[in-house]
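Memo to structure team: turn this sequence into structure tokens by end of day. - J.P.
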Amino acid sequence: MRVLVVDDSRAMRMIIRRELRTGADIDDVTEADSAPAALRLLEDDSFDLVISDWNMPSMTGIEFLETLRGRGYNGSFAFVTSESGEGTRLRALQAGAAFLLTKPFTGAELAKEISLLGSGGSGGTVGAPEDGERTVTSVLEGLLRKPVAAVKSEPPSRRVARAMARYQGPSGNEVAVFIAEIGFAASAGAALSLLPPATAAEWARAGVMTETIEQNFFEVANVLASVVNPKAGHCTLKEVELLADFEKPRDNERLSSAVQQTNLQLTIAGYQPGRVALIALDDTAA
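Reply from structure team:
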């Protein structure tokens, strides 16, 4: 089986490729970093299955699928995405997707869905547990494939650089923020790319958001969208930024009056720990 994997995250393409080989035992995998790039590939080549992310710049995954179907493409298409919910699943299936896997997922789950192609498969939404069962540690462990320990702690230190992820709700209002000390951002980014702890430590000592850290942390923060503010329901990662040491967020006063803030020290097995804050905001605020 020939598979085309479409995702703007290099780390996530690597993870899907790994799971295809370990779970579904598929070796013929081609990658594209955007929907337009994938469309160009599909003009000159054919694949048995296209696996795409949902949220991508230039063209979203659902727009990609709708474009393909509009051009008469009848091949199998599936989503691997942090998007979840009945509305997302129905839109995907109505557009012609065979199935939708929610990040994090396992190779066995991916292999099961692929095995059902052409046999009246489930066409369901599988992968992550239901939102009510999800926790920061379970989501991270599912993504990184490593044990993750969490203990309550003080907020992330302003003495070090911090990575900051902002999330918006369906109305476009900012509903949550995830702040991580550079040490944890580096550890999570390295673990995602299967890089050694020494590399993460080197990144953390530099105290800057390299392109690799930013790309990988974006994927980590993206998957955490389902747990960063459970009361807000569905939310989407909007952006990631770096705060230099002692730098305050531009909306520090609003963050200080958050609806809820959870401070944790997270340790990915084998990597240095770091403190994080999950901040739930009033979703009625502009």
